[in-house]
Specification:
Helix content is about 20%, strand content about 40%. With about 160 residues, the protein is α+β, with helices and mostly antiparallel strands.
C-alpha cells in the first residue's frame, strides 16, 4: 500500500460509518444494463434508418421514333409507358423536365416553334400517340438522343 499520510483509522472512516459498504441491488444493476443496451441499439437503428435514402426508380419502357420531316425534328411515342411531366411548352418554347432531347451530346435548346399536336403552351405528358415537333434541322451524321431524366435512361437514339 502507498503512503497517503492518513492513518488506517482515518482511511477506513467512511466504510465504518456505512457509506460505500453496500452496493446497488443486482436487480437494479440488471435493469440499468438492459436499459443501456436498449438505448445503444435504438441509436444504432435510427442511424441506419437515416442512411437509407430513396428507392431507385424502375426503368420505363417506350418505343420512340425520331425522324426528320420537312426540316423539323419529329419525335413520336409509339407504345409503352407515358412520361409524365415530360416537358413544359410556353408559346412554343420547351423547358425539359422528365424528358430531355440532345443533339450531338448537347441539350437541345428550343426557344419557339415547338408543338405537340395543336398544343404550344402547357405541361405535356408524353404518351402513346404523342408527336413532338421541334423546329430543328438535322444533317447527315447528327445524333439525336432522347433521355428519361429521373433514371438517366436512354429511351431512343437516332443517327441521321
Amino acid at each position: 500500500m502507498f503512503f497517503t499520510g492518513l492513518g488506517k483509522r482515518e482511511w477506513m472512516g467512511p466504510l465504518r460509518r456505512g457509506l460505500g459498504v453496500h452496493g446497488i441491488s443486482p436487480l437494479i444493476a440488471t435493469i440499468f444494463l438492459l436499459g443501456l443496451i436498449l438505448m445503444v441499439f435504438v441509436v444504432y437503428v435510427v442511424g441506419l434508418a437515416g442512411r437509407g435514402g430513396t428507392t431507385p426508380l424502375p426503368p420505363i419502357y417506350t418505343m420512340l421514333e425520331v425522324e426528320n420531316q420537312d426540316g423539323k425534328l419529329v419525335i413520336r411515342h409509339g407504345t409503352g409507358d407515358t412520361v409524365t411531366k415530360a416537358f413544359k411548352l410556353y408559346n412554343g418554347a420547351v423547358t425539359w423536365l422528365n424528358l430531355l432531347v440532345r443533339l450531338n451530346g448537347e441539350n437541345l435548346n428550343v426557344t419557339g416553334g415547338a408543338r405537340v399536336g395543336n398544343l404550344t403552351t402547357g405541361m405535356v405528358d408524353f404518351g402513346p400517340g404523342s408527336r413532338l415537333e421541334l423546329p430543328v434541322s438535322v444533317r447527315k451524321g447528327d445524333t439525336v438522343t432522347v433521355i428519361y431524366v429521373p433514371t438517366g435512361q436512354i429511351l431512343g437514339e437516332h443517327v441521321f
